[in-house]
Amino acid sequence: MDNRIIIKLKNGGLGRLINIIQTLFVSLLRIWSIPIVLLLSLASGFTTYYGMSHFITPWIALIITIAIQSIIVITSFEIAGIHWQANRLRYASVWLSLLIALLASISFSYFKFYEISEQDTIHIDRLSQVRDKIEHYLMDVLSLKGELLAEQRRGQEQLSRDVTQAYFGTHPDITPALRHQVGEGRFWRHYNDLYEAKKAELKQLEQQFTGLDAEIEQLQTNLDLLDQDSKDIQPVYQSVLSGLQAVQLHFNQQVAQYKQNLPSAPILMPYSQYTQELKPSFAMWSGFSLFALVCAAMVDFFTVLLSYRLEFAAPGPLSEQEEELVFECLRQFTEFRINDNDALEMVIEKTEIERARRYVDWPRMFAVGLLLSRGFMRKIDDRTVEFAPTLYPLIAEKLGDRLQQIRERSKPDTVTVDTAVGHEHG
Known about the structure:
Blueprint: H1 3-52, H2 58-81, H3 88-168, H4 186-226, H5 234-255, H6 271-274, H7 283-286, H8 290-312, H9 320-330, E1 336-338, E2 344-347, H10 352-356, H11 362-374, E3 377-379, E4 384-387, H12 391-425
């Protein structure tokens, strides 16, 4: 450890140690802000490059990304160090450059965060699309199947009534000569044959629909398995496709002889499209995601904020010569007060007497500018500044050194006086 620091610790005691630790901690936090800014800029650059590389050549996207992130950091530094009253054109151009760079960075970073945040949603949408198409088709199939069976049963019931009427001779088509003759005659046998044929046809149709129901049940089972989290879902998806084709073929073969307008089976997306990863495209803006936009903007916001703070309160210790200069120049100011922030406030304008005497105050103003640039002072307005917490230990140290010097200079005088008095009494 430096001898100067050891002397300070001996003279200041515990208070001096606490001030040194506090100053060191604040300085480390400011220094730590530098790698954080670089890491944030790197993260923002990665997401920007990822989104941009899907629209232009990758190496061109890399160069543009580096330029964008450099502009964000550099302009953030510049904004903290310039004032619009000094050069409004430069101030406006810097802000415009920063806004354009932020707009480009956030826009292309949005694609990456959209892909991350909406990946599960896109998969669910694809699954819902497949499920809805199949379920709508199955509903049409089952509805048409029910209509066909109901129609065949009505035909069978009608033939059953015809057989009964033919047996009792009350059928409308019976000739008047044979009406009301009971028995199994030629007319009855005709309708009875039709009834038995219809009955056998209906039974066969119901048996065929039993096999169709089994295929529909298997298709719905495979559709439920498709909703489960599994790494290898290709066999399941292929089973869904083949099951749908089997249902369509079986149903069309059974119903084509009865119905003409059969429902069309849906065309499902191929497996490669079903499992395809989400790629950046302008269609992502149509399905806007506020969460993805906030995440993209948040990274750049923190980059700008920390870059601005690094320049606005730039860390930088004072050398021993600078400490002496600052202390001597601050002693030349005369108007001090404690403000509402419980900080020592100082007026940096010339007093009326100094103006009358044409006092040259550039050395002390240089000291104020030095302290402002190093973060030891904060500007309140055009005429006042306040002491930062890091400046109080420095001033206290200088005041303590001056007091010690005064005491040391006063000791020889006291010894001389005591010696003279002793000789006089002798």
